[in-house]
């Protein structure tokens, strides 16, 4: 029997109805909340299940001295350098080391300038989530961010077939729309700053947040196209994607996403992305 909003039960076969008593209704509501809490806990547990991350491998270890004299040992798979900053892909984190503590504060301040629409409760997952801040000797500083299982820089999976590159571009367009909502220009869209999960098709933007500034043009949308070309196995097929990647971006991310959605419909037959084999 199906439970409806009018506190009634209806048999889908004969149409007969029954109604909860007040006590039954309260008991059902309590049970329903418990079930939802259980499902949420299971989803959260899966979200941080690093046993499912078979892509990560140990490649090296760097060590830094913390202010308390103990060592911060970073076991990493890959590391990337920017001016005055190094960031590592660790087992469960993305770790940033700044040559100057003040630069770490600039990074955090720029990251915290993001705002999200109240209706979109998952958009924050596309941006770094701070786990801890660690003071180091010699005025250095470390910022440790969550790296969800199977989330890696897009360049690690290059070259991308067009059918898979399509959803990577979609994630980058999503991220640019979020930046547009915050009236921000990121300034570091690149193959090693765009992180993706090839299994869930999620995307995250790491890289150098110190470059963020007030939005004035469409530089991020231009960088999106350059990044996609670098990642692509073949930029000429389908033709609709080729034209998009070689076109001048729209004036803002919302309009550009509309252009890209047309490519998805005409060039790929809609949102029917094939599962990526790794």
> What number is the mean pLDDT?
86
Give the total of beta strands.
14
CATH superfamily of the largest domain: Transferase(Phosphotransferase) domain 1
SS field, number of helical segments: 6
* Largest sheet properties: 6 strands, antiparallel
CATH topology of the largest domain, what is it called? Answer: Transferase(Phosphotransferase), domain 1
Radius of gyration: 23 Å
Structural class call reads alpha+beta
The figure for the number of domains is 3
Termini separation: 44 Å
Concise structural overview:
The protein has 278 residues and is an alpha+beta fold. The protein has six helices and 14 strands.
Explain this structure to me?
This protein is about 35% helix and about 25% strand. It is an alpha+beta fold. The protein has three domains: about 1-45; about 60-145, Phosphorylase Kinase, domain 1; about 150-270, Transferase(Phosphotransferase), domain 1 (Orthogonal Bundle), CATH 1.10.510.10. A hairpin with a 5-residue loop joins strand 4 (about 60-65) and strand 5. Helix 3 (about 160-180) runs antiparallel to helix 6 and helix 5 packs antiparallel against helix 6.
